């Protein structure tokens, strides 16, 4: 309950700060594309155009694929870290690149955030998913898994993180992932990775149609578990066990693609190979010496 209270409180702070910022600290420029409204500093004009197009296309795609509603969205592009901190308040982890709530999105401009344009695009796609499912009661694993999946963020690094957790027998439970906002960056990365891995399996195992059905019923009944059962004919807990059985087979060997560990594995193999070759050469040399000594003895005789 304490966690829920803090989460709700921080969310309200974020909304109030955003509203306050739009009313009293409106950026220099504003751009509108259909139902997408972007607020930005003058030096981010090109970024604003790209943002409006990306978010608009993502909304259209989510509507077609999952029958989700298209709604007006307001995007604020912070052009420096102080502005981002000012508007996000206490609701933003230090590692976040964007926040979204109640039709408002706050993102860091790539002009200062050290993220690539591709990374910025992923952030926009990710946060658009969150805004599109606003009002549907979703657990963190589903919400974040869905957002990452539809933002194309299920990369090799995340698969390796899941593989590490498998080898360590340290997979996070669905309940533990609910506390993602309280985690440090390292823990959060693992929680994000497992969330998208679970959603990937859910989408692959049941199909896009049933995922859309789950969202529909979860919204209709305002109850995720009821929506999940109606769509997939099983409880989230049963699905968790199903996924855990699958993940051990599916991600076990991704650890071999971990570049850092791969370097050490290769180095170890080279060391072992060198030892074997050295030992083989030594045996061969000793054999040659023995043969040479035998020949010398025969010559002396």
Can you give me a brief rundown of this structure?
This protein has 301 residues and is α/β, with parallel strands linked by helices. Helices cover 67% and strands 8% of the residues. The chain has 13 helices and 5 strands.
How would you describe the overall organization of this protein?
This protein is of the alpha/beta class and 301 residues long. It has 3 domains: 1-134, Collagenase ColT, N-terminal domain (Glutaredoxin); 139-257, no CATH class; 259-300. 67% of the residues lie in helices and 8% in strands. The chain is built from 13 helices and 5 strands. It has helices at residues 2-24, 45-66, 81-88, 110-113, 117-132, 140-150, 156-167, 174-177, 185-206, 208-221, 224-232, 236-250, 259-300; strands at 29-33, 36-40, 73-78, 98-101, 104-108. The chain has a 5-stranded mixed beta sheet with strand order 1-2-3-5-4, sandwiched between helices. The protein is extended, with a radius of gyration of 27 Å. Residues 1-10 have low confidence and may be disordered.
Write the layout of secondary structure elements.
Blueprint: H1 2-24, E1 29-33, E2 36-40, H2 45-66, E3 73-78, H3 81-88, E4 98-101, E5 104-108, H4 110-113, H5 117-132, H6 140-150, H7 156-167, H8 174-177, H9 185-206, H10 208-221, H11 224-232, H12 236-250, H13 259-300
Parallel strand pairs: 2-3, 3-5
Antiparallel strand pairs: 1-2, 4-5
Helix pairs in contact: 2-5, 5-6, 6-9, 7-9, 9-10, 9-12, 10-11
SS-derived structural category: alpha/beta
Q: How is the largest sheet built, in terms of strand order?
A: 1-2-3-5-4
- Please report the total strand number as a whole number: 5
Going by CATH, the architecture of the largest domain would be: 3-Layer(aba) Sandwich
* CATH fold topology of the largest domain: Glutaredoxin
Number of spatially distinct domains: 3
Strand content: 5-15%
CATH superfamily name of the largest domain?
Collagenase ColT, N-terminal domain
């Amino acid at each position: 309950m304490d966690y829920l209270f803090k989460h709700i409180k921080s969310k309200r702070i974020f909304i109030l700060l955003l509203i306050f910022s739009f009313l009293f600290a409106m950026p220099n420029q504003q751009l509108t594309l259909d139902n997408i409204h972007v607020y930005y500093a003058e030096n981010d004009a090109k970024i604003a155009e790209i943002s409006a197009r990306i978010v608009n296309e993502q909304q259209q795609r989510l509507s077609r694929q999952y029958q989700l509603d298209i709604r007006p969205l307001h995007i604020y592009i912070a052009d420096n870290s102080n502005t981002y901190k000012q508007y996000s308040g206490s609701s933003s982890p230090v590692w976040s690149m964007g926040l979204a709530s109640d039709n408002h999105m706050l993102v860091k401009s790539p002009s200062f955030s050290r993220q690539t344009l591709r990374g910025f695009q992923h952030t926009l796609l990710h946060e658009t998913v969150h805004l599109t499912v606003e009002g549907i009661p979703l657990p963190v694993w589903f919400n974040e898994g869905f957002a990452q999946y539809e933002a194309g963020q299920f990369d090799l690094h995340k698969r390796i993180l899941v593989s590490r957790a498998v080898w360590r027998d340290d997979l996070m439970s669905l309940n533990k992932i609910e506390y993602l906002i309280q985690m440090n960056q390292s823990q959060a990365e693992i929680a994000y990775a497992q969330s998208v891995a679970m959603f990937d399996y859910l989408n692959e195992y049941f199909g896009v149609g049933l995922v859309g059905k789950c969202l529909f019923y979860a919204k209709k009944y305002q109850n995720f578990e009821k929506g999940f059962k109606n769509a997939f004919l099983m409880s989230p807990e049963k699905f968790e066990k199903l996924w855990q059985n699958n993940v051990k087979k599916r991600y076990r060997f991704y650890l071999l693609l971990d570049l850092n560990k791969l370097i050490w594995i290769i180095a170890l193999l080279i060391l072992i190979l060198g030892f074997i070759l050295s030992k083989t050469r030594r045996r061969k040399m000793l054999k040659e010496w023995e043969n040479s000594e035998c020949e010398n003895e025969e010559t002396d005789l």
